Amino acid sequence: MKRLWFILMLLLAIFIPQEPTQAASTSSQVVIVNTATNKLAFYENGSLVREFSVGTGKSSTPTPSGKFTIVNKITNRPYYTRGIRGGAPNNPLGDRWMGLNINGTAGDTYAIHGNNNESSVGKWITGGCIRMHNADIHWLYDRLNTGATVLIKRAQTSYEAIASSYGVTLSSSAPVVSTPISNGSGTGRTMVSLNVRTSPSITATRITTLLQNTTVTIYETRNGWYRVTANGISGWVSADYVRIL
To answer: May I ask which residue range the UniProt record assigns to the signal sequence (predicted)?
Structure first.
């Protein structure tokens, strides 16, 4: 029983922000797609909630850049071009479609949608649409409202910079969640060890320990990393370096 417990239990209980019981207003939701990195970020109330890998347009049919809106949401949309029924295993749209008003279209040409080939996600392969893993599109479809803003750009820069280029401000410093940690034992023993890095991309580390009832504030999540403050330490924490002792 004194062996280490892996991160999953801790993340589920503490680090992953709790979903609201009611949908947020559309004005609070922003999706940013970077076609240079094939990443999609979902922001709510100015804070990053989740980031996903996506497939985007190939060189001959690139995904258009610009500021757009989710104008419809369709479950099991048929693939009319080839007469494939909605929800069929061979439907390249998957079973979720969120239409965009790109180039004056009415959500019937460009979309964020699923796929029938999971290995295609992450590649520049589509006719201009944004393709997601089916599990990911299900998650996003259930949370994203029609009217939400979608920003698309090819850039080697941050999501915040992309948003700013379209006149959208993201309050990335706003906490996602601030939660006290407690092991419930009442002993006051050290329960959590955090390996805090100054950046997710470097190898240098520094270690800090957290006592029970320490408050950890999560400011941002990115690919399994958590930007946190705790015990006066600020930095990025990887799931690989969080454990219950």
So the answer is: 1-23
Question: Catalytic residue among 113, 131, 133, 153, which?
Answer: 113
Helices (H) and strands (E) in the chain, counts: 3, 15
- Residue 228 corresponds to which tokens in the numbers above? 């946190």
Active site residue 129: yes
Residue 216, classed as helix, strand or coil, is: strand
Q: What confidence tier does 217 reach under pLDDT thresholds 50, 70, 90? A: confident
Is-catalytic flag, 113?
Answer: yes
Of 54, 129, 140, 196, the catalytic one is 129
What does the pLDDT average to over 137-162? 93
pTM above 0.70, yes or no: no
pLDDT for residue 158: 83
Q: In order of start, what are the domains of the chain with their CATH numbers? A: 7-16+176-244 (2.30.30.40), 26-165 (2.40.440.10)
